[in-house]
Amino acid sequence: MTSPQVSLDELRDTVRRVATGEIPKYQDEQYYNTVPRDLFSTLADVGLCGLTIEEEFGGLGLGSEAASIAIEELASVDLGPAIFLSVHLMVAGLVRAHGSKEQRATVLPKLASGEWLGAFALTEPAAGSDAVNLRTEWKREGDFYRITGEKCYITSAGWADLYIVFASKSPGNGPQHIAAFLVETAPAIASGALKISKPERKMGCELSPIASLRFDGLKIPKTQLLGSEESGYTVARTGLFGGRINIAAAANGVAASAISSALSHLKEREQFGQALIEFQGLQFMLAEMKMKLEAARAVTEKAARTLDKEPKGAENRLLSSIAKCVATDAAMSITTDAVQLLGGAGYIREYKVERLMREAKMLQIVEGTNQIQRSIIAKELQRS
Ligand SMILES: Cc1cc2nc3c(=O)[nH]c(=O)nc-3n(C[C@H](O)[C@H](O)[C@H](O)COP(=O)(O)OP(=O)(O)OC[C@H]3O[C@@H](n4cnc5c(N)ncnc54)[C@H](O)[C@@H]3O)c2cc1C
Question: How far is CA 110 from CA 31, 57, 242, in A?
Fold first, then answer.
C-alpha cells in the first residue's frame, strides 16, 4: 500500500488478505516462541511496520484509527502478530513524538521498512503495575550513560533490534528521575553488557515471545537518550495511550473470531433433532456476545479518533483506559461463552476457540492490568 491514497477500507481489505493468507502457515509449533521474521517482513511489505510513521521516513503516515483497524484484522487470525506489531508501532510513535531530529532520521526509516523490530522495556521483577518504582538505574559518565538492572516479560525480547528502556537516576524517588533510552541490540549484545533470557513459556499468544533483559552497566552514547533526563515517565505514559487502544483493537479481533466460530458451530451442529442455533437460550447468548463486541468496537473507535484529532489532549488518558478495559473484558466474556457454545469441542485445540480464550486472558493483563485501568479512570473522574 502507498499513502496518501490508502483509505481505511482498503487498509482493512489488505490486512485481512495478508492475515488470512500468510499467518496460518506460522501457526505451527516450529514457530512458537519466536517472532517469525519472514512474517514481520511480509507485514512490512504491505506498509504495516510503518503504518503510523510519516511518509518522509518511508511510512504510510496514518493514525491510531488505521492502526486499530490493522491490529483487529491481524488479531482475528492470531494474536501474536497483532501484539508484536502493536508494540513496534508504539516504539515508532515514541520516537516520532520524543525523538531528536537525528534520532527520527536514523531510527524511523529502519522501523518503517521492517529492517528493525522495536520493543518496549518498562516492566521489572519488582515493578509491574507500580512502574514509577522501577529499579533499573542510569548514571551519566561524560558523553555516555550506563544502565544497570533487569526487565521482564518484554514482548519480542530476543528478536527486537531496538529497545526503548526506562531507567531511573534515583530509583524509588519519583517519576522525575526516570529517563527513556534507545538501546540498539547488536552493539549492546556485542559489549557483553546485555543478556537476554530464553523466552518464557506462557499460556498462549505463541507467536509473540516475551523474555527478560539484564543490563550490567551497559554503556550507551548520550545521543541515545529519548526526550530529556526527566521525561521518561511521560514518554512511557503517552506511549501507552496508543498502545492501550491497540490492545482494545486486538481484543475486538479475538472476540470477532470467537463469535464467528460459535455461529458456524451453532448452525452446523444438531442436537434434539434441530440445529443448536434454534435454541433461544443459545440465540440470546450469541446476541449478548455481539452486543458486547459492537459496544467495544465503538469505544475503541472513539478513543482512536480522539487520539488522532488531539494527540496531546487530556481525554486520551481516560478514553484509552476505558477502551482497553471495555474491549478486553468483553473479549474475555465472549471467548469464554464461545467455548461453552461449542460444548466439548470448545475444549479441544483443533476448534481454536480455547486458544481465543487464552489469548483474551493476556489482554486483560498487558499494558496495565484492568484493575490499573479502573484506577486511572477513577482518578480522572476524581480530578474532574
Ligand atoms: C504476554 C505479556 C507481554 C508483556 N509485554 C510487555 C512489554 O512488551 N513491555 C513491558 O514493559 N511489559 C510487558 N508485560 C508486562 C505487563 O505489562 C505486566 O505484567 C503488567 O503491567 C502487570 O504487572 P505485574 O505482572 O508485575 O503484576 P502486579 O503489578 O504484581 O499485579 C498483580 C495483581 O495485582 C493487581 N494490582 C497491582 N497493583 C494494584 C493496585 N494499585 N490496585 C489494584 N490492583 C492492583 C494487578 O491488577 C494484578 O491483578 C507483558 C506481560 C505479559 C504477560
Answer: 24, 9, 21
